[in-house]
Amino acid sequence: MAMTKSFDVSNLSRSIQTTIELVGKAVTLIQDYGQSDRVSQLFLPHLEDDAESLWKVLRALGNIRNSGPNTRTLNDREQRLYSDIEAYLDSLQQRLKRRTEGLADGSISPTQIRTTRDLDQLEKRLNDWTTRFQLTYSIISSEILTKSSPSAKRINALRSIFSQLTILDSKPPDLYIPFSDIQLLGGSSRRMCALYQRNPVIAEYMYKPYFPTLTPSEISDIGSEVFELARVLHRSDPDQTQILKCSGYFHDTKARVFGLLYEVPPSLSCYGESMESRVLSLRELLRIVPRFSLSHRLRLACDIAKAVLYVHLAGWVHKSIRPNNILLLEDPSIGPERRFPYALARPYVAGFEHARSVKIQSNRTSDAEWQLNIYRHPKRQFLERNTTYNMSHDVYSLGAVFLELGLWGSYGFVPFEDREDLFKDKTGEQIKETLLGLMRGRCELVAKDKGVAVMMGDSYAALVRFCLEVDELVELPSAEFVEEVWLRLDEMRSALC
């Protein structure tokens, strides 16, 4: 009989406290060398940010500790997740300890660390661990607390760590923005760059124009639904969630449509190379041969998965995960060798025009656009009487996006939305079989036996298959999503850094 591992909040808290102390010591030692090696101080803001992130983790752990017993029992899946974050932190701790001791006794100089990029890589690993902890540990603690306290609310540690996204103000902010206050830059499209209070924003229309026959009350109901979504996205931290913060929502009465405004993070631009008003998305990039590394591709997939997980933890389903709704914002100040097609900017998931809270009943309708059906679950491709949309349908959509991302740049690759011969006038099951054929390398879009595993490896191919074959009748537990999707991607990406 397998031994059952315990989840000890106090022990993990002490380990994190030790790591914070080591980071603080490294910061102090590097500051002491400041007069002779100012370049090394470039690492200081990153290390200080890591320390602040770890303090947030400690505060969240304190909330968990105060809610019940410090030690809890884990099932097999939870044991694997806990062991991963525990071992990762221990490894980072040992490396950080050796570096700080070397700096203290003079056997290592900041110049040596800078030349070998050792501290830079260690800082990135520490940042990776914080993100991994925030997801894996939060999912574990959430589900354990739920099991041990059936009468309690769904206690979720992410609601402590990422309160900006998941906890709404008791007094909702006024997020309505008069359409006259927005300056749209360029022609008409569903998503475009704009200015609001002289700041760059992205304007995104939410729905198709509503019927002119709607009553003021019915129009107000649509506005209320948009407000609730804006309220959730307003709390988003783009650096943590890969979802842009929403400035507010607007109502274009002339076009009879509502929309959202997203803030553009400092130093980033929503323009593509052509400097048009159209916002650059993954859909446009898929038509260009990539020249970036495999680790960039895996990071992109990992960030998209993380964004979807946050949407689900906030109690919403996205319903429109596809390349056109994955935005790429670049820093125009960096050199061309660090921009596309030689590098990939961080993605931000947008396109919430069909998103809804899981508390709201699905209307079970859709449309017949074959390009959109490529990324929809087979049971969600009818005009009406579709299966009620759930989170597993989003996971299926992720599988289609990950497959296209994995095949991108392979010999003979053509973006899925340009393959009318493969996907138009096909049933949902036929489209799914075509996608699985592409994954295995048994389809005319790719050379025989040259499936996604040749480009991305067997583990990535298995992940794509998991998403495409997800059971749509069963809600995928958050812990399983973390382990089977996000954590696998993150481990593949980390191994290549």
Can you give me a brief rundown of this structure?
The protein is an alpha+beta fold. It contains 18 helices and 11 strands.
Give your account of this protein's structure.
This protein is an alpha+beta fold and 497 residues long. The protein is built from 18 helices and 11 strands. The strands form 4 sheets. Strands 3-4-5-7-6 form a 5-stranded antiparallel beta sheet, covered by helices on one side. Strands 1-2 form a two-stranded antiparallel sheet. The chain has a two-stranded antiparallel sheet with strand order 8-11. Strand 6 (246-252) and strand 7 (257-263) form a beta hairpin. It is globular, with a radius of gyration of 24 Å. Mean pLDDT is 75; it is low at 141-167 and 272-276.
- Percent of sequence in beta strands: 5-15%
- Report the span from N to C terminus: 38 Å
Shape: globular
Helix content: 40-55%
Q: Can you summarize the main beta sheet?
A: 5 strands, antiparallel
Q: H/E order of the elements?
A: EHHEHHHHHEEEHHEEHHEEEEHHHHHHH
Secondary-structure topology with pairs:
Elements: E1 6-8, H1 9-32, H2 44-66, E2 71-73, H3 76-105, H4 110-116, H5 118-148, H6 158-161, H7 163-166, E3 182-184, E4 191-196, E5 199-205, H8 216-233, H9 238-241, E6 246-252, E7 257-263, H10 282-285, H11 294-313, E8 316-317, E9 326-328, E10 347-349, E11 356-357, H12 370-373, H13 391-407, H14 420-423, H15 428-440, H16 452-456, H17 458-468, H18 478-496
Antiparallel strand pairs: 1-2, 3-4, 4-5, 5-7, 6-7, 8-11, 9-10
